[in-house]
Amino acid sequence: MTAQNSRTRPYDSDDQGSDTEGLDKRASAAPPSKRAKATPSDLTVFTSLGLPIDEALTKSYTFFSPLPSSDPSDEYVLGVDEAGRGPVLGPMVYATCFCKESYYNELSSLGFADSKQLTEEQRDRLFARLQQPDVLEGNGWSIRCISPQDISQCMLRRNKYNLNALAHDATIELLRETLAKGINVRRVFIDTVGPPATYQKKLETLFPGIKITVAKKADSLYPIVSAASICAKVTRDAHLLNWRFAESKLQNKLSTVYGSGYPGDPNTIKWLRESLDCVFGYPGIIRFSWSTCVKILEDKAVHVIWADDEDAPANTKPTSRFFTQTQSAKGARNPGRPRSQFFGRRRPIDLGVTL
Questions:
Q1: In order of start, what are the domains of the chain with their CATH numbers?
Q2: What is the secondary structure of 64-121 as a DSSP string?
Q3: Which of 13, 83, 272, 286 is the most exposed place for a label (fewest CB within 10 A)?
Q4: pLDDT tens-digit profile of 325-350?
Q5: Any idea where the RNase H type-2 domain is (predicted)?
Q6: 3-class SS at 282?
Q7: How far apart are the C-alpha atoms of 281 and 69, rounded to whole Å?
Q8: Nearest-angstrom CA–CA distance, 294 and 288
Q9: pTM
Q10: Is 101 annotated as a binding residue?
Q11: Is 82 annotated as a binding residue?
Q12: Alpha-carbon distance 234 to 94, whole Å?
């Protein structure tokens, strides 16, 4: 679990990336965490693909489906969308779906639509359909799953790296890796993050020769973006439904009924208040940069002040002296400073905390 720095400034809605449009509809929808825990068969589609759904998600990862069999003359259309941009907890997942131009009409006929307009069962069915051999002949997909810890670290570091920049970089990384795998992408459709014209110009500069369209509500306009939306949403939901806390002693102690995860959902706020440890804060599922989280920590948790180096008195010895050995004027190691006993420990340390 992570203690919150009380000096942290709550981010405003632009920094958070909280998508307020349609919030009521999403907040009232039954979240995946309200279902019964998945049985092993429910995870088969993920485990057979090699996705780490049943592992503690402490690091971001990228995954590509099996690639379609193709030759250099095949041209592809690709769509990009995300899931989990606005919630205060869980990963943010960016996804692509790409298919041969000759297969695009057939893909469009499968019934893909904006994932928020489909039921959970419909999304699961469409995602499973994408894994069928006949569909994989002309189609592929990829995801960039960004862990809550990485989101927090990016947004709370000294040189601010906001959610828009994180989203742009995830998209660019997926596009570059798709091209590097030999997929001849000729058209790209992307659901915008920020002003569409600015974002489109940025991508056109990075990917000359590819026709790029960045639009609002692209997941409702272009079936290839809708398919990417399905991949992103189903993957994120699976992670939350089967969430394994990195803080192992919390696994069977904390509720996994998170609500929708959006700050406007009373069920999410209830979970945040009930799951707070007044000293250690929250487990790693939480995005600590969200103002909702910061506010609860400031109101309910122990106040913590972290002394910055520049605030320390001039005669204060640096902490780094405990981790390094000094050298004499002749360059020899100084034998007078013993190595800390901390570094002599070889046994693993269990940092799990019981609330």
A1: 1-355 (3.30.420.10)
A2: EPPPPP--TT--EEEEEEEE-SS-SBS-EEEEEEEEEGGGHHHHHTT----GGGS-HH
A3: 13
A4: 555 555 555 555 555 454 444 444 44
A5: 75-302
A6: strand
A7: 49
A8: 7
A9: 0.75
A10: no
A11: yes
A12: 11
